[in-house]
Design brief:
The protein is mostly helical. The chain folds into 2 domains: about 110 residues, no CATH class; about 100 residues, no CATH class. Helices cover about 60% and strands about 10% of the residues. It has 10 helices and 5 strands. The strands form 2 sheets. The protein has a 3-stranded antiparallel beta sheet. The chain has a two-stranded antiparallel sheet with strand order 1-2. Helix 4 runs antiparallel to helix 5.
Length: about 220
């Protein structure tokens, strides 16, 4: 995906909204989640505003600017006004915050963003679907036709095979692309990748030679 999409990433105690290209995440949500881990272990809550004022935090930001040549706004920035104000921070600073908040929270953040590569997988899934669309254009009954409607219907049918109707409706009501939601986790992303690869292979091998056959195969996935 070319645009910097805001994605909601799910954790045990909630979600973190994060832009998939710049990897700037909602810092308030990071502290809400981190403090839930602290409460579970009987630790005191840690306030975001106090944390940002700590000398150690300021030193870490300065060190990041020195090492990577970042502007401060590339590490942490405030957007919006009044009640709509939000503080975003890049992924490395989020990991630093998670480390200071709770060891288990840090491990979960690293597992999700680094080991599972959740943002990259979501991006790859979008690119893979574009590749599938290219193959749909090659179907004998769809050549040299406007297939935009076919692309949309195929996407809908795949979503209905991967997510529950309740999850789909919830995201629709909120005006959220379900692939940018908390429901797009490692399991559902793996299903998407598997399904798209199977459809592409079936078209390449001639097993799928029409849109009607495509719908039939999707129904059997």
């Amino acid at each position: 995906m070319k645009t910097d999409q805001l994605m909601s990433v799910s954790f045990v105690n909630g979600t973190i909204d994060i832009f998939h290209k710049t990897q700037m995440g909602n810092l308030k949500q990071v502290f809400i989640l981190g403090n839930k881990y602290r409460l579970d272990q009987g630790s005191e809550l840690m306030r975001l505003d106090n944390f940002l004022k700590r000398p150690n935090t300021k030193k870490y930001i300065d060190d990041m600017m020195t090492k990577y040549g970042y502007e401060k706004s590339e590490i942490i920035k405030v957007v919006g006004r009044g009640r709509g104000i939000k503080t975003y921070a890049n992924l490395q600073f989020i990991i630093y915050c998670a480390t200071e908040l709770n060891n288990f929270f840090r491990m979960d953040v690293i597992d999700t963003f680094i080991n599972e590569r959740i943002l990259i997988k979501r991006d790859d899934g979008g690119n893979d679907f574009k590749e599938l669309n290219g193959y749909l254009d090659k179907l004998p009954d769809r050549k040299e036709k406007n297939n935009q409607g076919i692309f949309i219907q195929t996407a809908i049918k795949l979503r209905e095979k991967i997510f529950t109707l309740e999850e789909i409706q919830e995201c629709k009501d909120k005006g959220i692309n379900i692939w940018n939601s908390q429901y797009a986790n490692s399991s559902t992303l793996a299903k998407r990748d598997d399904f798209e690869k199977k459809l592409i292979f079936s078209i390449e091998m001639g097993f799928i030679d029409s849109y009607e056959k495509l719908k039939e195969v999707i129904g059997r996935l």
